[in-house]
Write a structure and sequence with these properties.
Layout lengths: L1 H13 L2 H37 L8 E4 L3 H17 L4 H11 L4 H11 L4 H10 L1 H5 L8 E4 L4 E5 L6 E5 L26 H29 L2 H14 L1 H10 L3 H16 L21 H7 L7 E4 L3 E4 H13 L2 H4 L2 H18 L1 H10 L3 H17 L7 H8 L4
Antiparallel strand pairs: 1-2, 3-4, 5-6
Helix pairs in contact: 2-3, 2-4, 3-4, 3-5, 3-8, 4-5, 4-6, 5-6, 5-8, 8-15, 10-11, 12-13
């Protein structure tokens, strides 16, 4: 035993903390540089589009600006995620972030301190003292670009020579404020707790990548499609009591009748819900939860939150998830460990369904956190309508501000 303890201590000492901090700092610099380059490319593409649309003018120009909200969000998110992965490297990570993007120093310090209030003094010191030394090693970033209308130059021919007359440009419209995207049901992507949410999201993402996703991928690879389909049917049928309770609370008694019929048919003819029979008999599935019930009473979604291990939600829907636990008969019928086993198995089955969509979202999005937040709001909008399509009036209202 003593030999094993000494061997473990020697292994830990073999990788000194400064080396870990330097590696984390280098990784943060590389990620920020890639994110800024991608955002800059998008800005240049937008500039070319503006110039193409303004070909009627003889002269146009691009004016550099200090940055963009999108770039700031990416940089602060990278720093917060790196700190969450290894809090011991907070000083090196903050210095690297400020060095790679000095224009966002205040934003990095503010967001990181909000996410990790216990490290606020360390973060402030690192943001203020280490910026100069790290910035010297980081490559200079090119400015972002946005279109600025110049004077229009109109050439007017004359009998003897070309007369050039300069006409003042029309007054530039006031900047349009960045607002949260409207949702079909009247809500908005409100995320005032973004710093804390990103920290929790980073921890959840590590648990998902190294624990839940590998287990779900193994299950999806080994299990035949009929088995996976039966498992999905089984857990959907198992949630019927919760759906029934919320159907009644929403006074949608027709939906409550459908839920009872589905549960009876699929539990008996469908062999404990392993086979979906009720769908073919004219009893389609619909979602119902207590967050949806609160929405039917006019309760607003509230701020966006990321719940540890559970993932994206809102204050209203997070409360609804807790209440649904009390509606579930398994809460009272099973002991703690069997109930946790059922919950874990259900999580694996659901995660297996989302492997490809989430992998594609992670691969193709600039900011995985923001992309997942938008995907959650869109999916939740469908759930609040019990899976039914939005009315044309609701769709028009959702996009009225963008026309």
């Amino acid at each position: 035993m003593r030999f094993r303890v000494l061997a473990a201590a020697a292994l830990l000492l073999a990788v000194p903390l400064p080396a870990l901090g330097q590696a984390a700092g280098a990784q943060v610099q590389a990620r920020i540089a890639a994110a800024l380059a991608e955002t800059r490319n998008i800005g240049q593409i937008d500039g070319r589009m503006v110039r193409e649309q303004g070909r009627f003018a003889v002269a146009t120009q691009l004016a550099p600006t200090d940055g963009s909200r999108q770039a700031e969000t990416q940089v602060t998110g990278i720093v917060i995620a790196a700190i969450a992965e290894n809090p011991a490297t907070v000083t090196e990570v903050v210095r690297a972030g400020v060095g790679a993007a000095p224009q966002f120093r205040d934003a990095i310090q503010r967001s990181a301190s909000a996410a990790f209030p216990g490290f606020a003094p360390t973060i402030a010191a690192a943001a203020g003292s280490g910026a100069a030394t790290v910035a010297s090693a980081a490559p200079a970033t090119a400015p972002y670009y946005s279109y600025a209308p110049p004077p229009y130059v109109v050439a007017v021919p004359a009998p003897s020579a070309a007369l050039v007359t300069t006409v003042a440009a029309p007054p530039r419209a006031a900047a349009v404020p960045v607002v949260a995207a409207p949702m079909p049901d009247g809500g908005t992507e409100s995320d005032p707790l973004e710093g804390v949410n990103r920290a929790i999201f980073a921890v959840n993402d590590v648990a998902d990548r190294f624990v839940l996703r590998p287990i779900a991928w193994t299950y999806g690879t080994i299990a035949p499609d009929p088995v996976k389909r039966s498992m999905r049917n089984f857990f959907r049928n198992l949630g019927s009591p919760v759906r029934f309770a919320n159907d009644v609370l929403q006074f949608t008694f027709e939906d409550a009748g459908v839920t009872v019929a589905r549960f009876g048919i699929n539990t008996t003819v469908g062999v404990l819900g392993l086979f979906e029979v009720a769908e073919g008999w004219g009893f389609p599935h619909h979602p119902a939860d207590f967050g949806q019930t609160l929405h039917s009473y006019g309760v607003g979604a509230g701020p966006y939150i990321v719940i540890p291990l559970l993932g994206p939600s809102t204050v209203r829907d997070g409360l609804g998830t807790a209440v649904d636990v009390f509606f579930d008969p398994l809460t009272y019928a099973l002991d703690t460990y069997p109930r946790l086993g059922v919950t874990a198995t259900n999580a694996i089955v659901r995660r297996e369904q989302l492997i490809e969509p989430l992998d594609d979202l992670r691969k193709n999005s600039i900011d995985y956190y923001a992309a997942l937040r938008s995907a959650y709001y869109q999916d939740r909008a469908v759930t609040l309508r019990k899976g039914r399509g939005a009315s044309p009036a609701a769709a028009d209202a959702a996009f009225a501000d963008f026309e």
